[in-house]
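Researcher: I'm preparing a figure for a lab meeting and need a structural model of a single chain. I don't have an experimental structure, so a prediction will have to do for now. The sequence is pasted below. Please return the structure as tokens so I can convert it later.
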Amino acid sequence: MSAEPLVGVLALQGDVREHAAALTVAGARVLPVRRPEELAEVDAMVLPGGESTTISRLLEIFELLEPMRERIAAGLPVYGSCAGMILLAEKVLDGRPDQHQLGGLNMIARRNAFGRQVDSFEGDLDFVGLGGPVHAVFIRAPWVESAGPEVEILARVPDSPTAEAAAGRIVAVRQGPVLATAFHPELTGDVRVHRLFVDMVKEET
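Model: Understood. Here is the structure written out token by token.
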């Protein structure tokens, strides 16, 4: 494999360009993925934010749902931000009955846990292994309601006067080659989360 792994970015909805730019800085080549034959080419995938139920339907329409499930089950490294975290969860609370899950993370995610878009917020998080706080942008974000013992918890919402019910909630996790955040690191210019993922890809390939 090239020293620069080929990372696909699901290009059906969401912050595709922003993730592509961050991945490039983090040391990866990038391929927008809309078709099964493009998925077959990549060493890893990024699932951007957006609207999880819409992305779920588009995965089925573009005939990517089953190929994605198969590759994730076979060990494909995947990073999901916001809606991507929801899609990677085994179960979702407050989702639509016909919403499809890709799996990969033994956890339950709560969709739109932080409220409507007007309630979106930013804050600094301690993130395991990144050498300092991460400035996190939450936009109609999920959180992890519960996680199995094999899921490594990387970040939680800190306890503060403004955190209220969100205090202590899990917002970044890893299970083997699968990484997920409830927030959008692609929007901040800080590529440490993307660099962590690229390093994970190199470990797995």
